Amino acid sequence: MLDPNKVTLLIKNAGLKSTQARIAVLGLLMQSQHGLNHQELEKRLGENGYQFDRVTVYRTLHHLSEARIIHKLVGIDRSFVFAYIDEAISGEPSTHQTEHPHFICESCATTYCLDQNSYTQARVEVPVGFTLKHSELQLFGICPQCH
């Protein structure tokens, strides 16, 4: 079971107000073994007794993403998928590091975070005047559950 005090502390350490929606959403993402889209999050929130409207969930995801507590990427169906970034706030190693590859199953559309050490980062020269803020590596295929 996840310690609610740890979730609250992570939110406050990121400079955000600790609201019930932020605690619930971040708690679910911290417990998940893979990235979740908005629909999956709404379903899990409901299963856990939370009733937040769609706009509240979107805003919560936006604020947590802007604070670099979670990251957002585009899934196979072009919907956003969100995952917890453990290392960004706590300094503890995790599979959810800020820049790491993702494996997206083309059968079930599940997004998995892969270990940062599982690949060698490509070196790309950006033209003079451009500022690179982040990069993403997405691998597509079939996960073990769908084989």
Write a structural description:
The protein is of the alpha+beta class and 147 residues long. It has one domain (4-146): Arc Repressor Mutant, subunit A. It contains five helices and six strands; from the N terminus they run H-H-E-H-H-E-E-H-E-E-E. The strands form two sheets. A three-stranded antiparallel sheet has the order 1-3-2. Helix 1 (4-13) crosses helix 2. The two termini are 31 Å apart.
Question: What labels would you give this structure?
Answer:
single chain, Arc Repressor Mutant, subunit A, 147 residues, globular, 6 strands, 17% strand, 3-stranded antiparallel β-sheet
Distance between the termini: 31 Å
User: The CATH topology, please?
Assistant: Arc Repressor Mutant, subunit A
The CATH superfamily title: Winged helix-like DNA-binding domain superfamily/Winged helix DNA-binding domain
Helix count equals 5
The stretches of 5 or more residues where confidence is low (pLDDT under 50) are: 88-97
Summarize the main sheet. 3 strands, antiparallel
**Strand/helix succession:** HHEHHEEHEEE
CATH architecture: Orthogonal Bundle
Proportion of β residues?
A: 15-25%
> What is the residue-mean pLDDT, rounded to a whole number?
83
Q: How many runs of DSSP E, i.e. beta strands?
A: 6
Helix content: 25-40%
Quickly name the level 1 CATH class: Mainly Alpha
Structural class of the secondary elements? alpha+beta
User: What overall form do the CA principal axes indicate?
Assistant: globular
Global Rg = 16 Å
